[in-house]
């Protein structure tokens, strides 16, 4: 059992037979009453997100997961295929589990995947990843003192805002949690 005050972003727990991953955590203390813990969670199996509220001192079942580093191969309409680089065993991960992380998957890259027994639960992306800008309007030199952004399309088809000095063919780093531009690579 784990206390609800220990739930932080990324933590997995079980509640009423469902496995949840914490997306955000908020501790609320009002006057003389007891504190409330509000967490935004993602149901791992269904992919839905909900808000849960617990009283201070409540406990939930801890889920012990095994993390494996697997290489991404390809995907079809329903499943993404990964390979263990040591044993060459292929693992299928349903796309509904990784729908938010899917645009960041690159052929041949290794990713850490969390498993409960043999069931894949989630994919753990690095905080920042590099992508090549596939399309961007021509840049304007000299206007770097202000935060003016333009639209750009990356090699994976994702759209993001980039500074004016970024051009087509440039490598940039993107925050995988928000999809926002962080820096030029």
Question: Secondary-structure map with pairings?
Answer:
Elements: E1 2-3, E2 12-15, E3 18-28, E4 36-43, E5 49-55, E6 59-62, E7 66-75, E8 79-83, E9 90-94, E10 110-116, E11 119-124, E12 128-136, E13 149-154, E14 159-163, E15 171-175, E16 181-184
What this model shows, in words?
The protein is mainly beta. The chain folds into three domains: 2-62, SH3 type barrels; 66-124, OB fold (Dihydrolipoamide Acetyltransferase, E2P); 128-184, Nucleic acid-binding proteins (OB fold (Dihydrolipoamide Acetyltransferase, E2P), Beta Barrel). The protein has strands at residues 2-3, 12-15, 18-28, 36-43, 49-55, 59-62, 66-75, 79-83, 90-94, 110-116, 119-124, 128-136, 149-154, 159-163, 171-175, 181-184. The chain is flat. The chain starts with a strand and ends with a strand.
Properties at a glance:
six-stranded antiparallel β-sheet; SH3 type barrels; five-stranded antiparallel β-sheet; mainly beta; flat; 3 domains; 185 residues
C-alpha termini separation: 43 Å
Strand content: over 45%
Topology as a string of helices (H) and strands (E): EEEEEEEEEEEEEEEE
At CATH level 2, the architecture of the largest domain is Roll
The number of helical elements comes to 0
Could you estimate the helical fraction of the residues in percent?
Answer: under 10%
Shape: flat
Give the CATH level 1 class of the largest domain: Mainly Beta
Summarize this structure briefly:
By secondary structure, the protein is an all-beta fold.
